[in-house]
Amino acid sequence: MNYKDISQKSYPVNRMLTAEERQNQLRQKERLDITPFYNASTVKFNSTFMELVDRWFIYRGYLTFISLFFLMLPIVGVAYPLFIPSWDIHPTREYFMAVGFSLIFISPIWTFSIWLILKESFRWTHYPIRFNYRKRMVYVFCLDGVMRSAKWDELFFTISRCRRSYTPGSGPQIWDIRGHALKADRKTVEWTFALHGDSEDPRQLKNCWEFVRRYMEEGPKAVYGDVHWCHDVATRRETFREGLFALNLNLNGLPRLIQYVSAPVVWLISIGRVFAIRTSKIPQWPAAIEAKCRIDASDPYQRTAAQNPAKFPTDPVSVVREQISQ
Predict the structure, then answer these.
(1) Alpha-carbon distance 283 to 195, whole Å?
(2) Where is the DUF6708 domain (predicted)?
(3) pLDDT tier for residue 8 given thresholds of 50, 70 and 90
(4) Which of 18, 53, 110, 280 is deepest in the core (most CB within 10 A)?
């Protein structure tokens, strides 16, 4: 995973496109001969628009849990001895002085933890991206809370490094798909957003890109059968069970042993996810955008969480993994 760009300001803008971005460009009119992969990213799907969750949705809770841990650990350490009858500890003046010095010592850790927790909590439950097939527009609820829009045909999509600088031995290189809105010169980046998902293997991202590209270029019929699940987050906060499910999306397609070993960690992280979601606002599109995204009542390609199966299907994940490994 990568959190370096969780602040919109981390995306470099007012700059020229790099040679690597041009080399890795994903072209709207170029059909790739691969299996489209929706990557469990859909919120709504219909003939008018397709709405997806953001790049960090399945990781929501990791930063918050770590922050809460470092915020609460010193408090528990100070208060715990007071509740043990066998310990001869009384709230004397010396005790409070020791506590005061301890708090001063750990204040930098608390400051950093609060800064970190605000990356996920007290913000928005998710940052939706809406692809309007009929209007050929893309609407983005950006990380800074500003809603931006751009014409589909004018956006520059590319596979980008999540680390601006990478050195061998510093961990795996993670990639994601970026969409750049360019200025009139078609060379300068004005603003940037990222599509759902990341990977150590850029080839897997092409499957995710092809799902979006075919929807916008070939219409909903081309990929309707590839949508197997929708997140029920458009008008409400997710439940604990739904949040746990979202975190487990990171493990889909992995060997059973890895999933079982990782389960306790995911349960712990889910505590942070609950805090992050419950303290955040539900994003709402303005009336002007909703007016451009009206759905026909008889639309045969409507898909929401109401049609979700009882169990999340993992077959699409396995198919894509097998295709990439070949």
Answers:
(1) 17
(2) 110-294
(3) very low
(4) 53
pLDDT tens digit sequence for 32-60: 999 999 999 999 999 999 999 999 999 99
Instruction: Give the contacts of 292 (CB within 8 A, at least 6 positions apart).
Output: 132, 135, 137
Question: Would you list the domain boundaries of the chain?
Answer: 8-61+120-325, 64-117
Q: Which two tokens stand for residue 83?
A: 């509740």
Tokens representing residue 125 in the block: 């439950």
**In this structure, are residues 189 and 58 in contact, taking their beta carbons and an 8 Å threshold?**
no
Residues 6+ apart with CB under 8 A from 129: 51, 52, 53, 54, 138, 139, 140, 141, 193, 195, 196
Rounded Cα–Cα distance for residues 100 and 312 (Å): 50
Structure tokens at 325: 């490994």
**By C-alpha distance, which of 215, 68, 61 is closest to 126?**
61
Cβ neighbours of residue 174 closer than 8 Å, sequence gap 6 or more: 1, 2, 161, 162, 163, 198, 199, 200
